[in-house]
């Protein structure tokens, strides 16, 4: 069991940021990644649909024998957090809790901003978790065009900056001192976001925070790979084009993803 892979899931390619952070912190661990490219983007879709897609992909990872599930997608985490923990025997790590905990310990003035897809912000998953602490005030903004920019490989154009100015203006005016980047794609826009928000605002990125949670959970459950483990990395996508996945993966992450297998997830019926 200990040398089984960690299953990492995202709506597409963006979750590779989480896979990379996990591999950097845990180089002996094997990784099985599925990007649901056939149905991405999840951000604009109804939350009930996202939940169904996400459970289908997670079922597929569990059938392949992973020892842990990592939901790298913020929109999917927002849609089916509790369901996943109840449904699977293996531990489930998602991206919202780790980022929330870091934001709570980072803020000095108690004013926290959260940005994400329309689905993530509309679900109020971040807001509800942060507002458990009554001393915090949360300001949330959906930034749908950010994903489009990153997928097009555009991270430093004047258009990105102008859009960031527009989306982030309410958060600047609200005086947040901590901003959660609640989407897989936003770390690629950290330059523009930090420039607009100002260097005194701390940015909390879910990829590295989630990798720390994976580390913590593996150690505490005695699930770390054995000392002689030979790590493997397998990447799967549900879409029809391996080339599209690889092209975007290379643009975002460099050449470390060499090959992708096209797979289908099993359909499940869920009551709505
Ligand atoms: N992975 C999604 C997220 O983190 C962004 C891309 C999408 O909309 O599918 O919310």
Structure description:
With 272 residues, this protein is α/β, with parallel strands linked by helices. It folds into two domains: 6-94 and 208-262, Rossmann fold; 96-206, Rossmann fold, CATH 3.40.50. Helix content is 46%, strand content 17%. The chain is built from eleven helices and ten strands. It has helices spanning 16-25, 47-63, 74-87, 96-106, 118-123, 125-130, 144-151, 158-174, 190-197, 206-220, 242-253; strands at residues 6-10, 31-35, 68-71, 92-94, 111-116, 137-142, 178-182, 202-205, 233-237, 261-262. A six-stranded parallel beta sheet has the order 4-3-1-2-9-10, sandwiched between helices. Strand 3 (68-71), helix 3 and strand 4 (92-94) form a beta-alpha-beta unit. Helix 2 crosses helix 3 (74-87) and helix 4 packs across helix 10 (206-220). The longest helix is centred in the first third of the chain and has 17 residues, at 47-63. It is globular and about 50 Å long. It binds D-glutamic acid.
């Amino acid at each position: 069991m200990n040398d089984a892979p960690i299953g990492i899931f995202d709506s597409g390619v963006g979750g590779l940021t989480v896979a990379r952070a996990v591999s950097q912190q845990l180089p002996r661990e094997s990784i099985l990644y599925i990007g649901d490219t056939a149905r991405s983007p999840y951000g604009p879709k109804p939350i009930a649909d996202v939940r169904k897609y996400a459970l289908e992909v997670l079922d597929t990872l569990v059938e392949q024998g992973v020892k842990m599930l990592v939901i790298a997608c913020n929109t999917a985490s927002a849609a089916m957090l509790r369901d996943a923990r109840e449904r699977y025997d293996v531990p489930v790590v998602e991206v919202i809790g780790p980022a929330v905990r870091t934001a709570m310990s980072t803020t000095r003035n108690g004013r926290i901003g959260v940005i994400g897809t329309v689905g993530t912000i509309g679900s109020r998953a971040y807001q509800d978790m942060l507002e458990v602490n009554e001393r915090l005030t949360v300001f949330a903004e959906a930034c749908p065009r950010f994903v489009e920019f990153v997928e097009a490989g555009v991270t430093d154009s004047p258009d990105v900056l102008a859009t960031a100015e527009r989306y982030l203006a309410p958060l600047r005016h609200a005086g947040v001192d901590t901003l959660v980047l609640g989407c897989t794609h936003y770390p690629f826009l950290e330059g523009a976001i930090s420039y607009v928000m100002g260097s005194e605002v701390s940015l909390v990125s879910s990829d590295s925070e989630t990798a720390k949670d994976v580390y913590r959970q593996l150690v505490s459950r005695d699930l770390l790979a054995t000392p002689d483990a030979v790590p493997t990395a397998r990447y799967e996508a549900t879409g029809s084009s391996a080339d599209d996945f690889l092209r975007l993966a290379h643009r975002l992450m460099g050449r470390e993803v060499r090959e992708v297998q096209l797979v289908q997830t099993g359909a499940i019926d869920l009551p709505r």
